[in-house]
Design brief:
The protein contains two helices and nine strands, in the order E-H-E-E-E-E-H-E-E-E-E. It is α/β, with parallel strands linked by helices. The strands form two sheets. It has a five-stranded mixed sheet, covered by helices on one side. Strands 1-4-3-2 form a four-stranded mixed sheet.
Length: 128
């Protein structure tokens, strides 16, 4: 990116069909309650400094989003998700130990964690 950034904060939105069902899933995914609720059909989690992920009840658009969060410690993050009963849909390995661990919410939206870690058996090799 060239020039001066005009961004102050980033909000990545995920449309969901059933707000309550998805809210329960994302509470488990993030391991915490939402940071705030802008209204009765949205929930927002702070995932980093000036970085937020939110779900919003938009049934006609549900299941079509994908986003990735770069983890500070990918192995610890994935282990915590496993302890909370969530298993990845797939794991993609890239050059120099970079990995992308993909999860699917109840609508099929893909939310991933990326970072550097040790490859595991059964992961998918992808050209980066």
């Amino acid at each position: 990116m060239t020039g001066t950034s005009t961004a102050q904060d980033l909000f990545a939105g995920i449309p969901v069909a059933d707000f309550d069902h998805s809210l329960a899933w994302y509470r488990r995914f993030f391991g915490v309650e939402p940071s705030f609720y802008p209204n009765d059909i949205e929930a927002v989690w702070a995932v980093g400094e000036h970085s937020y992920v939110y779900i919003e009840r938009l049934p006609d658009r549900a299941g079509r989003s994908m986003l990735m969060i770069m983890a500070v410690d990918l192995d610890t993050t994935v282990a915590a998700l496993t302890q909370r009963g969530l298993e990845p849909q797939r794991i993609e390995n890239y050059e120099e130990g970079m990995r992308k661990v993909v999860y699917a919410d109840p609508d099929g939206n893909e939310i991933s964690y990326g970072g550097v870690s040790t490859p595991t058996i059964g992961s998918v090799e992808r050209e980066g």
